[in-house]
Amino acid sequence: MELSSSIFIVDQGTARDHRARGHRARGHRARGNRGRGRAGGGRAGRGGAARGRAARGRAAGGGRPRDPELEWSATYNPPADRPFAEPAPGPTQRYPNGPEIREGAVFDQMFTDEIWDLIVAETNRYHDQQVTAEPNKHKRKWTPVTKGEVQAFIGIMIYMGIVKLPRLTMYWSVDNLLHQASVSSVMTVTRFFQIWRYFHLADNSKALPREDPRFDKIYRVRQFLDLVMANAQHLYRLDRDVSIDETMVPHKGRLSIKQYIKNKPVRWGIKLWVLCEAKTGYVFKFQVYLGKEDGNVEYNLARRVVKHLIAPIEDKFHNLYMDNFYCDPHLFLELETKKVLACGTIRANRKGFPKDLVITSAMEKRLNRGDCSWRSHGNLVAMAWYDKRPVYLISTIHPPESVGAQTTVQRRSQAGPREEIPCPPAQCAYQEYMGGVDLADQILQSFSVIRKSRKAWKKLFYYGLEVCLLNSFTIFKKVKQTRQDFLSYRISIVRHLLEGKCFRGRPGRLPSRPLADLDATRLNKQYHSVAVEEKRRDCVVCAKIVSVQNLSRSAKSRTNTVCVTCDRKPLCILSHRNCWEKWHNLVEYWR
Fold first, then answer.
1. pLDDT digit string (tens) for 48-69?
2. Segments in 365-435 forming alpha helices (H)
3. What is the mean pLDDT of residues 17-44?
4. Quick check: helix, strand or coil at residue 10?
5. Which of 483, 497, 490, 498 is nearest to 446 (CA)?
6. Are 267 and 248 in contact (CB under 8 A)?
């Protein structure tokens, strides 16, 4: 069936008349300038010569590469059937006991032993390198980390994303209000910060200097991110509809690759290009944007990014959705030759987009909401659809007009209630499938493990860990056919990593009870059990008196007599000073 486009014809003719009159006016001004004297003519001549040299340089192969002009038609012939060639989208591994599978088993497939061994080896290596380079700054005793200890460390980091406290030390606080026994019973605060200080993912001795042309700005995390992507692609096959967009890893410190994106929830940070499954947000492949290479401007950046990300899914007729940063007609034609179909919005001034579809301000006044016009070039369709403002789309997936029932979108009318507005099929599909990366960001940011750090590569490690959690969660839901939410899944992973692990030499100090409860106990006028310990400690009453009255520390008394009922508080029982009586009878025992 052959379709033809006839909307906007009158308006486009009017627009061409306006443009023609504009060209004639510019021609009169140009002829007027030529008669202004020798100086003006000389400048024009030199400028023309410079432009001529630039044109010859481009023709010789320098500067921005040129694309061939496209011939657009007002008729459209539907292409032959292009069936999706992925036989079994979803998890690639077989799970015979799918309904009984545990969350930890899926996470271990994504965060493999190779990654654990990498962290253990490079963390121990980095400590040894630091001690050798600066022994005076690394005097604390170090015990080489093990796989189990690193697993507990990562489990605590995930837990801290669920239960957020302002400072890391608060998780080990003796204050009953802040104390987190699930953290403090596994690892001491000293050991946690020691592992975090030497945590590493690459051998610094093999890093190239900045002057080297092969210098890698993310060398310290490159191998880890490559392993995460390899596991993501090995364990899952993408469904037909996928999307490409950018995401941001927050970072406000000094960094050469730091970027700013105005309309993102995270505006400052490290930018990544991401390929996701549209319906689930499964992160299949990503690339860190490293900025200009050698200070040179990169032409066709969007094309290079798209071709790099879609390399693993070529020849399967996936439907790829992108926004107007990536879309251009020549890219879509090239993707079609690789059997990847594409759809997305496009900027009106993009090279190759048919100019007779551009809606001017004068034309907007005469258009109704929902009006649409299109042009085609083979299977590529360019569309101009008028909503509240012009929307431009290109697609190699959809026909320019609906086949059968008219596709519509809901919009709020001026009267108040929603109404159905006709739109091209590409617009409906774009709204439905473009949000894969945004969906992944929304899921990951709810209980993110990302914390403040001066080292940007650690932020990228956090992102890789989050990707492993999200991807394993997606696989777990598909295998088990469950509606479990992401929070419950993260809690299960924390339990999996911490279960049965304890790296403390001795039990930690118990958290203190609230002051009101303690006062109620010590002043209850009942029998309190007394005990004698081997070790002497400062009497709590004497210590309080010294603190309040600003006395000399020598006025403190050390005793081995404790009140068992009052959390084993040390109290003096002497002939000349009976702190036991003051403690149990006076509210303000320090006066």
1. 444 444 444 444 445 566 888 8
2. 425-433
3. 43
4. helix
5. 490
6. yes
Segment 198-216, tens digit of pLDDT: 999 999 999 999 888 888 8
pLDDT of residue 256: 85
For 352: left if phi > 0, alpha if psi spans -120 to 50, otherwise beta; the answer is: left
**Are 530 and 563 within 8 A, CB to CB?**
yes
Confidence of residue 590 (pLDDT cuts 50, 70, 90): confident
Question: For a pLDDT cut of 70, what percent of the chain falls above it?
Answer: 86
DSSP H helical ranges for 338-455? 361-364, 425-433, 436-445
Could you tell me which residues are beta bridge partners of residue 259? 269
Nearest to 289 by CA among 253, 256, 334, 323: 256
Residue 200 falls in which region: left (phi positive, over 0), alpha (psi -120 to 50) or beta:
beta
Q: What pLDDT is attached to residue 31?
A: 42
Least Cα distance to 272 among 260, 256, 253, 287 occurs for: 287
Dist CA 315 CA 263 (whole Å): 34
Backbone phi, psi, residue 67, to 5°: -105, 150
Helices (H) and strands (E) in the chain, counts: 18, 18
Six-digit token string for 414: 């001026």
Distance CA 494, CA 449 (A): 12
Q: Residue 150: which of 110, 198, 219, 107 has the closest Cα?
A: 198
Q: At what angle do helices 103-110 and 486-498 cross, to 10 degrees?
A: 80
